[in-house]
Design brief:
The chain is α/β, with parallel strands linked by helices and 252 residues long. The chain has a single domain, classed as Alpha-Beta Barrel (TIM Barrel), CATH 3.20.20. 44% of the residues lie in helices and 15% in strands. It has eleven helices and eight strands. An eight-stranded parallel sheet has the order 7-6-5-4-3-2-1-8. Helix 1 packs parallel to helix 11, helix 7 runs parallel beside helix 8 and helix 10 runs parallel beside helix 11.
Amino acid sequence: MSRIPLIAGNWKMYKTEEQSEEYIQALLPRVSAIDGVEVAICVPFTDLRAMVDSARGSRVEVYAQNMHQEPEGAFTGEISAPMLSELDVRGVVLGHSERRALFGESDRALAAKVPSALAAGLVPILCVGETEQERDSDETDRKLRQQIREDLAGVPAERLADVVIAYEPIWAIGTGRVASAEQAQEAIAFIRALVGDRDRDAAERVRILYGGSVKPENAAELIALPDVDGALVGGASLEAESFAQIVAAAAA
């Protein structure tokens, strides 16, 4: 079954609104003629409206980097899925390793967030992955099994394929280290099999991205792997030229 690749750039806490406007004007002409791949930029909350407006009508979609599971309430500093939907935001990153490690985001919270995103019409990018210690202790499979089982527990089988899953080996994020092609394929094939335990058809249709120091130099090899359906790009997405090169690699 053909799965359309997705290249999503996670800006993290970078770019003011002015900087984001400069970026999008540089990115759009570089990706406008590239077919066969979906493109998303995952931007800070303060850049969302500007980026939605500037990217409207283009092939670039705008995602948020987090959201609260409740539609409203006394949750100071949080943003809800309906708030994102009203801005015409297309999707949201959930469970990024930095959210888990630095802000205590739990599998229990994600089990509520993923269905909430789907209910609001957002595409959730659910991030999963192991630490260096877990990799070295041969606990990668255990960690992935736990995250997939718990984080997707509230998603009915018929909606599983609407979730995008991003495998991010935590030891390869921002470190310059990259999982080998064999390591990436093995982990992502395992994730697909875990989804298949719930629903075989969903496993064939769900898109699974690789995330972890993806650059123009290694993007083509990683994206060409049988079970890899694109990339969640960090640092290399902050420059329009390098991000566009990764998008082009996915379309090749």
